Protein backbone atom coordinates (compact mmCIF):
# COMPACT_ATOMS: atom_id res chain seq x y z
CA UNK A 1 0.00 0.00 0.00
CA UNK A 2 1.35 3.44 -0.95
CA UNK A 3 1.86 5.24 2.35
CA UNK A 4 0.79 8.86 2.61
CA UNK A 5 3.80 11.13 3.05
CA UNK A 6 3.46 12.79 6.43
CA UNK A 7 3.45 16.45 7.40
CA UNK A 8 5.65 17.76 10.20
CA UNK A 9 3.90 18.25 13.55
CA UNK A 10 4.12 21.41 15.66
CA UNK A 11 4.94 21.24 19.41
CA UNK A 12 1.27 21.87 20.14
CA UNK A 13 0.28 18.96 17.92
CA UNK A 14 2.87 16.65 19.52
CA UNK A 15 1.16 17.39 22.84
CA UNK A 16 -2.38 17.21 21.53
CA UNK A 17 -1.88 13.80 19.89
CA UNK A 18 0.47 12.42 22.54
CA UNK A 19 -1.86 9.49 23.35
CA UNK A 20 -1.68 8.45 19.71
CA UNK A 21 2.05 9.01 19.45
CA UNK A 22 2.58 6.77 22.51
CA UNK A 23 1.20 3.86 20.51
CA UNK A 24 4.31 2.15 19.13
CA UNK A 25 2.59 1.07 15.91
CA UNK A 26 1.26 4.58 15.21
CA UNK A 27 4.08 6.78 16.53
CA UNK A 28 4.96 10.27 15.21
CA UNK A 29 5.07 8.95 11.66
CA UNK A 30 1.45 7.72 11.79
CA UNK A 31 0.31 11.03 13.24
CA UNK A 32 2.15 12.89 10.47
CA UNK A 33 0.29 10.77 7.91
CA UNK A 34 -3.03 11.61 9.55
CA UNK A 35 -2.15 15.30 9.31
CA UNK A 36 -1.38 14.94 5.59
CA UNK A 37 -4.54 12.95 4.82
CA UNK A 38 -7.64 14.19 3.03
CA UNK A 39 -10.78 12.11 3.58
CA UNK A 40 -14.10 12.40 1.75
CA UNK A 41 -17.13 11.42 3.84
CA UNK A 42 -20.30 10.85 1.81
CA UNK A 43 -23.45 10.89 3.92
CA UNK A 44 -23.49 12.94 7.13
CA UNK A 45 -26.11 11.06 9.12
CA UNK A 46 -25.79 8.54 11.93
CA UNK A 47 -22.63 6.97 10.48
CA UNK A 48 -21.05 10.13 9.07
CA UNK A 49 -21.30 12.07 12.37
CA UNK A 50 -19.12 9.77 14.51
CA UNK A 51 -16.71 9.07 11.63
CA UNK A 52 -16.17 12.80 11.04
CA UNK A 53 -15.89 13.62 14.74
CA UNK A 54 -13.35 10.87 15.46
CA UNK A 55 -11.28 11.68 12.37
CA UNK A 56 -11.25 15.41 13.18
CA UNK A 57 -10.31 14.68 16.80
CA UNK A 58 -7.65 12.22 15.62
CA UNK A 59 -5.89 14.94 13.62
CA UNK A 60 -6.84 14.14 10.02
CA UNK A 61 -5.74 17.22 8.08
CA UNK A 62 -8.72 17.70 5.82
CA UNK A 63 -12.27 16.38 5.72
CA UNK A 64 -14.57 16.83 2.74
CA UNK A 65 -18.14 16.59 4.03
CA UNK A 66 -20.72 15.70 1.41
CA UNK A 67 -24.49 15.73 1.97
CA UNK A 68 -27.27 17.82 0.46
CA UNK A 69 -29.76 17.20 3.30
CA UNK A 70 -30.74 19.50 6.12
CA UNK A 71 -30.84 18.61 9.82
CA UNK A 72 -34.29 17.46 10.94
CA UNK A 73 -35.76 16.77 14.36
CA UNK A 74 -35.94 13.02 13.63
CA UNK A 75 -32.15 12.97 13.02
CA UNK A 76 -31.21 14.01 16.54
CA UNK A 77 -31.88 10.55 18.06
CA UNK A 78 -28.64 9.29 16.47
CA UNK A 79 -26.82 12.04 14.54
CA UNK A 80 -24.76 13.20 17.47
CA UNK A 81 -22.83 16.03 15.81
CA UNK A 82 -25.95 18.21 15.55
CA UNK A 83 -27.47 20.45 18.19
CA UNK A 84 -31.15 21.35 18.24
CA UNK A 85 -30.15 24.78 16.96
CA UNK A 86 -28.86 23.13 13.75
CA UNK A 87 -32.36 22.04 12.68
CA UNK A 88 -33.04 23.40 9.20
CA UNK A 89 -29.35 23.99 8.40
CA UNK A 90 -27.50 21.98 5.74
CA UNK A 91 -25.85 19.01 7.47
CA UNK A 92 -22.52 19.62 5.72
CA UNK A 93 -22.34 23.16 7.10
CA UNK A 94 -23.57 22.26 10.60
CA UNK A 95 -21.06 19.39 10.82
CA UNK A 96 -18.18 21.54 9.57
CA UNK A 97 -19.02 24.02 12.33
CA UNK A 98 -19.03 21.27 15.00
CA UNK A 99 -15.67 19.94 13.75
CA UNK A 100 -14.05 23.40 13.69
CA UNK A 101 -15.07 23.81 17.33
CA UNK A 102 -13.48 20.45 18.18
CA UNK A 103 -10.22 20.89 16.28
CA UNK A 104 -9.31 24.09 14.46
CA UNK A 105 -6.30 22.31 12.85
CA UNK A 106 -8.67 20.15 10.81
CA UNK A 107 -9.86 21.78 7.58
CA UNK A 108 -13.54 20.85 7.27
CA UNK A 109 -14.96 21.59 3.82
CA UNK A 110 -18.75 21.35 3.44
CA UNK A 111 -20.05 20.09 0.09
CA UNK A 112 -23.81 20.69 -0.09
CA UNK A 113 -24.36 18.56 -3.19
CA UNK A 114 -26.33 15.47 -4.03
CA UNK A 115 -23.83 12.67 -4.72
CA UNK A 116 -23.78 11.63 -8.38
CA UNK A 117 -21.39 9.70 -10.61
CA UNK A 118 -19.94 12.99 -11.93
CA UNK A 119 -19.37 15.00 -8.78
CA UNK A 120 -18.24 11.91 -6.81
CA UNK A 121 -15.42 11.17 -9.21
CA UNK A 122 -14.36 14.82 -9.15
CA UNK A 123 -14.13 14.87 -5.33
CA UNK A 124 -12.74 11.34 -4.95
CA UNK A 125 -9.77 12.05 -7.20
CA UNK A 126 -8.69 14.74 -4.72
CA UNK A 127 -9.02 12.44 -1.66
CA UNK A 128 -6.74 9.80 -0.12
CA UNK A 129 -9.65 7.80 1.28
CA UNK A 130 -13.44 7.71 1.03
CA UNK A 131 -15.97 6.85 3.71
CA UNK A 132 -19.32 5.54 2.52
CA UNK A 133 -21.75 6.57 5.25
CA UNK A 134 -24.85 6.78 3.07
CA UNK A 135 -28.11 4.86 3.38
CA UNK A 136 -28.88 4.72 -0.32
CA UNK A 137 -27.97 1.80 -2.60
CA UNK A 138 -27.76 3.86 -5.79
CA UNK A 139 -25.24 6.21 -4.18
CA UNK A 140 -23.29 3.27 -2.74
CA UNK A 141 -22.84 1.84 -6.24
CA UNK A 142 -21.83 5.26 -7.59
CA UNK A 143 -19.25 5.74 -4.81
CA UNK A 144 -17.87 2.26 -5.46
CA UNK A 145 -17.51 2.82 -9.21
CA UNK A 146 -15.76 6.16 -8.69
CA UNK A 147 -13.42 4.67 -6.07
CA UNK A 148 -12.46 1.82 -8.41
CA UNK A 149 -11.84 4.33 -11.23
CA UNK A 150 -9.75 6.61 -9.02
CA UNK A 151 -8.09 3.63 -7.25
CA UNK A 152 -9.03 5.19 -3.96
CA UNK A 153 -9.57 3.07 -0.81
CA UNK A 154 -13.14 2.95 0.49
CA UNK A 155 -14.39 2.25 4.01
CA UNK A 156 -17.99 1.12 3.76
CA UNK A 157 -20.47 0.89 6.63
CA UNK A 158 -24.17 0.25 7.05
CA UNK A 159 -26.60 -0.15 9.94
CA UNK A 160 -30.27 -0.91 10.27
CA UNK A 161 -32.30 -1.91 13.29
CA UNK A 162 -29.74 -3.54 15.59
CA UNK A 163 -27.56 -4.86 12.77
CA UNK A 164 -24.43 -3.36 11.32
CA UNK A 165 -21.69 -4.15 8.86
CA UNK A 166 -18.31 -2.72 7.91
CA UNK A 167 -15.75 -3.53 5.25
CA UNK A 168 -12.81 -1.96 3.43
CA UNK A 169 -12.23 -2.01 -0.32
CA UNK A 170 -8.92 -1.03 -1.88
CA UNK A 171 -8.55 -1.12 -5.66
CA UNK A 172 -4.81 -0.62 -5.28
CA UNK A 173 -4.69 -4.20 -3.98
CA UNK A 174 -5.05 -6.66 -6.87
CA UNK A 175 -7.13 -9.21 -4.90
CA UNK A 176 -9.49 -6.70 -3.29
CA UNK A 177 -13.18 -7.16 -4.08
CA UNK A 178 -15.34 -4.08 -4.65
CA UNK A 179 -18.89 -3.32 -3.46
CA UNK A 180 -20.29 -4.48 -6.82
CA UNK A 181 -18.57 -7.88 -6.39
CA UNK A 182 -20.82 -8.44 -3.37
CA UNK A 183 -24.07 -6.71 -4.26
CA UNK A 184 -26.11 -6.41 -7.41
CA UNK A 185 -28.16 -3.24 -8.02
CA UNK A 186 -31.19 -5.39 -8.96
CA UNK A 187 -31.10 -7.77 -6.02
CA UNK A 188 -31.20 -5.39 -3.07
CA UNK A 189 -34.15 -4.41 -0.98
CA UNK A 190 -33.76 -0.72 -0.42
CA UNK A 191 -34.16 -0.77 3.33
CA UNK A 192 -33.37 2.57 4.90
CA UNK A 193 -33.48 3.88 8.46
CA UNK A 194 -36.21 6.28 7.38
CA UNK A 195 -38.54 3.36 6.73
CA UNK A 196 -37.42 0.69 9.18
CA UNK A 197 -35.81 2.38 12.17
CA UNK A 198 -32.38 2.00 13.72
CA UNK A 199 -31.13 2.00 17.29
CA UNK A 200 -29.15 5.24 17.77
CA UNK A 201 -25.94 3.75 19.22
CA UNK A 202 -25.80 1.09 16.46
CA UNK A 203 -24.87 3.74 13.89
CA UNK A 204 -22.45 5.16 16.47
CA UNK A 205 -20.79 1.76 16.81
CA UNK A 206 -20.55 1.15 13.07
CA UNK A 207 -19.32 4.70 12.39
CA UNK A 208 -16.69 4.36 15.10
CA UNK A 209 -15.44 1.11 13.54
CA UNK A 210 -15.30 2.91 10.17
CA UNK A 211 -13.15 5.64 11.80
CA UNK A 212 -10.77 2.99 13.18
CA UNK A 213 -10.48 1.33 9.77
CA UNK A 214 -9.86 4.72 8.11
CA UNK A 215 -7.04 5.51 10.55
CA UNK A 216 -5.54 2.05 9.92
CA UNK A 217 -5.59 2.51 6.14
CA UNK A 218 -4.09 6.04 6.37
CA UNK A 219 -1.32 5.13 8.79
CA UNK A 220 -0.69 1.60 7.55
CA UNK A 221 -1.08 0.06 11.01
CA UNK A 222 -2.72 -3.29 11.73
CA UNK A 223 -4.81 -5.16 9.19
CA UNK A 224 -7.82 -3.37 7.72
CA UNK A 225 -11.01 -5.32 6.92
CA UNK A 226 -9.81 -5.97 3.37
CA UNK A 227 -11.62 -8.88 1.77
CA UNK A 228 -13.55 -9.29 5.01
CA UNK A 229 -17.04 -8.22 6.00
CA UNK A 230 -17.61 -7.54 9.68
CA UNK A 231 -21.16 -8.27 10.80
CA UNK A 232 -22.37 -6.85 14.09
CA UNK A 233 -25.54 -8.18 15.69
CA UNK A 234 -26.47 -5.72 18.41
CA UNK A 235 -29.33 -7.86 19.70
CA UNK A 236 -27.02 -10.53 21.08
CA UNK A 237 -23.87 -8.37 20.74
CA UNK A 238 -22.08 -10.76 18.48
CA UNK A 239 -19.31 -9.84 16.02
CA UNK A 240 -18.62 -12.11 13.05
CA UNK A 241 -16.25 -11.72 10.13
CA UNK A 242 -16.81 -13.43 6.81
CA UNK A 243 -14.31 -13.59 3.96
CA UNK A 244 -15.15 -12.09 0.59
CA UNK A 245 -13.40 -12.68 -2.71
CA UNK A 246 -13.32 -10.47 -5.81
CA UNK A 247 -15.78 -11.57 -8.50
CA UNK A 248 -13.78 -12.29 -11.69
CA UNK A 249 -16.89 -11.30 -13.69
CA UNK A 250 -17.55 -8.05 -11.76
CA UNK A 251 -18.65 -5.36 -14.27
CA UNK A 252 -16.93 -2.64 -12.22
CA UNK A 253 -13.58 -4.02 -11.07
CA UNK A 254 -12.92 -7.19 -13.08
CA UNK A 255 -10.63 -5.44 -15.59
CA UNK A 256 -8.41 -4.07 -12.88
CA UNK A 257 -8.23 -7.43 -11.02
ZN1 LIG B 1 -15.91 -5.74 -8.16
UniProtKB/TrEMBL annotation:
EC code(s) of this entry: 2.7.7.80
Source organism superkingdom: Bacteria
Family annotation (SUPFAM superfamilies): Activating enzymes of the ubiquitin-like proteins (SSF69572)
Gene3D superfamilies hit by this protein: NAD(P)-binding Rossmann-like Domain (3.40.50.720)
Pathway involvement of the protein, from the record: Cofactor biosynthesis; molybdopterin biosynthesis
Catalytic activity field: [molybdopterin-synthase sulfur-carrier protein]-C-terminal Gly-Gly + ATP + H(+) = [molybdopterin-synthase sulfur-carrier protein]-C-terminal Gly-Gly-AMP + diphosphate
Pfam families: ThiF
Keyword Methyltransferase: no
Function statement: Catalyzes the adenylation by ATP of the carboxyl group of the C-terminal glycine of sulfur carrier protein MoaD.
Assembly, per entry: Homodimer. Forms a stable heterotetrameric complex of 2 MoeB and 2 MoaD during adenylation of MoaD.
Protein name: Molybdopterin-synthase adenylyltransferase
Amino acid sequence: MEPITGKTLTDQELLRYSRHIMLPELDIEGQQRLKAAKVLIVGLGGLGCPVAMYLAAAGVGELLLMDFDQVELTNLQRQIAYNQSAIGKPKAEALAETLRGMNSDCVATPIVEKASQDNLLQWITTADLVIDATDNFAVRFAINTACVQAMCPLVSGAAIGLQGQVTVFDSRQPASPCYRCLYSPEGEDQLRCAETGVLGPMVGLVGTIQAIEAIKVITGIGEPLLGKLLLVDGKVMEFRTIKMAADPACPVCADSC
